[in-house]
Sequence to fold (281 residues):
Amino acid sequence: MILIDGKKIAAELREELRHEVVELKAKHNKVPGLTVILIGDMAPSQIYVRNKEKSANEVGLKSEVIRYPEAVEEKTVLDKIEELNKDERVSGILVQLPLPKHIDKQKVIETILPSKDVDGFHPMNVGNLSSGYESSVPCTPLGCYLMIKKIEPNLSGKKAVMIGRSNLNGKPMAQLLLKENCTVTITHSKTKDLKAECLEADIIVAAVGIPELVKADWVKKDAIVIDVGINKTENGIVGDVAFEEVSKVAKALTPVPGGVGPMTIACLLKNTIECFKRSLK
Ligand code: NAD
Fold:
């Protein structure tokens, strides 16, 4: 079984990006800039943002974090986004989710200029991705996609099953694999026989949030299994895939932690650089 080492692949990607930033700086005398807006003091968000900032600096991006207290008014945040939209030093804007209840998530997403939307959540980017045009692609599915391609460069004709249909994971993941000519099935909480669907799959991407949902007898021999799930349990952090048993059947599998997580952050940096390059056109 191939253990898909997301940490290592992400480190390689960051190194490639670091070189790219050096070249861009030499050519254009400026570097891509990433601005993250963080609202409130939820511990996981604080950790994500700290990791994002650290990785951005490592790659040579200009990064900035704007922090607001939990009670910040929606208008303050929207005004700041408008200001960042106009600021040409800022290539990418990310508002860390989840947001406090009094702030309208969709309004925030739609205020970010599509060309600076490094999360790929703006309806314009969602539409472009599903129409097969150039767009920012959500970082987690992009990271999963790059790992799958490392294992199997030619995905044409493969059967791929997404578990979960969120805008963040399942849906954009399905679009990426469809573009690669996979036959894609998106399953969700109302799917009748999830095990039977999974047993058909050459590729399974699990993004559910249920600890060790996917068992060995759900997985076809030699399938590629990508585990997006992050679940806190008594035994520590586990994914949506029963790692030990599935590792005996699958051709390749991502660990949790150390699989999808590091790739998500590396892809955020990649998206920031892509936004910068498109702004030069
Ligand atoms: P979500 O709650 O938005 O979506 C979960 C999806 O799972 C839904 O579409 C739902 O229909 C489906 N589902 C629920 N129960 C099911 C069942 N019994 N069978 C089949 N489908 C079922 O979640 P999300 O934001 O997509 O995140 C999913 C998981 O991925 C979470 O554990 C989250 O923490 C993790 N995550 C990890 C990363 C990363 O970088 N590694 C990034 C984002 C999310």
Q: What stands out?
A: The CA atoms of residues 212 and 242 lie 4 Å apart. DSSP finds ten helices and eleven strands in the chain. The two ends are 43 Å apart (CA to CA).
